[in-house]
Write a structure and sequence with these properties.
11 strands, 4-stranded antiparallel beta sheet, alpha+beta, Ribosomal Protein S5, domain 2, 11 helices, homoserine kinase activity, Alpha-Beta Plaits, binds L-homoserine
């Protein structure tokens, strides 16, 4: 007799303009993982993205192995067959690494029969991905604000590729060989799910190049002028409520999605970003509520209530008109989903 677990984790868009490392929206685009325990063979299944299928290297299985080892299990129950189907594009600002980390925690919880609460799952996610915006939204769903208690992360913890350079990954790997597994302290992440009008959809324009979060974070300055911090705080406070109004106020939201903390420093990494942010507004683009970089980029997120395809066309044209032949893009119109990550257990033969 086998048991199959079907794990579903939504993509997320982090920051939403001013809420750098704070805000996340979960979107109707999914990473799915099917794990079958006590099947007849042990093997890691194919995924669509060409990522490592070595369970000690792949972010989903590395995360699961970390959580299992925190519970005294050094490996998956044997044999475990894992099949990954990833529809979230990698390194585009749609929370692929956050989804992989969340999936890994749910995978360990399922196959190890750990019965972790979502709060405890968030602790594990935050030991690996150090900013809570993507993982909190992927785990619980909807429009989510979160903060993190500072913790010591030295020791044997897998780090999300998004946060660590390859050099840092090698250093961490060397440290891990000799260190004890580090359990997360309890309650290191705190979140609230905020209201978001059902009229709002996410127009996502996804350039056909990857931008590693580590590179986009390395572009940020070490300190900020107080006027820029205040600029973001003012807008963020308004944004938390403005998106929840049943009839959204376009100009209120448009201004509340402006940012001076991360987008200005990342513009050289996303050709066309300044023009896109400066060109489209609710007067010249009816239906548009606000526009920003999705996560660390390069995807553009436009929140809108109408004229979705026209909004997408305008943004795509700016990318297409960049020097040296322009930038190819994909367009996805996504819903904001109120359900976060889930795992369904099905007893019986599978595969
Ligand atoms: N399904 C997956 N399986 C294994 N590893 C993954 C998966 N998805 C993402 N990753 C890892 O995460 C890396 C991308 O993470 P990164 O943080 O740079 O981008 P992102 O999460 O897509 O963007 P953002 O954090 O801005 O939303 C990939 O190169 C890969 O190493
Ligand atoms: N808040 C993060 C999101 C990317 O994962 C950033 O902008 O770097």
């Amino acid at each position: 007799m086998s048991v199959t677990f079907d794990i579903n984790v939504p993509a997320t868009s982090a920051n939403i303009g001013p809420g750098f490392d704070v805000m996340g929206l979960s979107l109707s685009l999914y990473l799915t993982v099917r794990a079958t325990v006590q099947a007849t063979q042990a093997e890691f299944g194919e995924n669509s993205s060409g990522l490592s299928l070595d369970p000690t290297k792949n972010l989903i299985t590395r995360t699961a192995l970390y959580v299992l080892s925190c519970h005294g299990a050094r490996d998956f129950p044997h044999p475990t067959h894992v099949v990954v189907n990833n529809r979230i594009p990698l390194g585009r600002g749609l929370g692929s690494s956050g989804a992989a980390v969340v999936a890994g925690v749910l995978l360990a919880d399922a196959v190890g029969e750990l019965q972790l609460t979502k709060q405890r799952m968030l602790d594990y996610c935050l030991m690996i991905e150090h900013h809570p915006d993507n993982v909190a939204a992927a785990l619980v769903g909807g429009f989510v604000a979160s903060y993190l208690i500072e913790v010591d992360r030295s020791g044997n913890i897998p780090e999300s590729e998004g946060d660590a350079s390859q050099q840092r990954q090698r250093e961490l790997e060397a440290q891990r060989q000799n260190s004890e597994i580090k359990l997360p302290p309890a309650n290191i992440g705190h979140y609230v799910q905020l209201g978001c009008s059902s009229k709002i959809k996410a127009v996502t324009i996804i350039p056909q190049f990857e931008l590693a979060t580590s590179k986009a974070r390395a572009a940020l300055p070490g300190s900020y002028e107080i006027k820029d911090v205040v600029f973001n705080l003012q807008r963020l406070a308004v944004l938390t409520t403005a998106l929840g109004r049943e009839t959204p106020d376009p100009w209120l939201i448009y201004r509340a999605m402006e940012d001076k903390v991360h987008q200005p420093y990342r513009k050289h990494l996303i050709p066309g970003l300044p023009e896109i942010l400066a060109t489209l507004n609710p007067d010249n683009t009816p239906g548009l509520l606000g526009i920003c970089l999705s996560g660390a980029g390069p995807t553009i997120l436009a929140l809108a209530v109408d004229n979705f395809d026209q909004i997408a066309d305008k943004i795509r044209k700016v990318f297409a008109s960049q020097p040296d032949g322009g930038i190819d893009t994909h367009y996805k119109l996504l819903d904001i989903v109120s359900e976060g990550a889930s795992c369904v257990k099905t007893p019986g033969p599978a595969l």
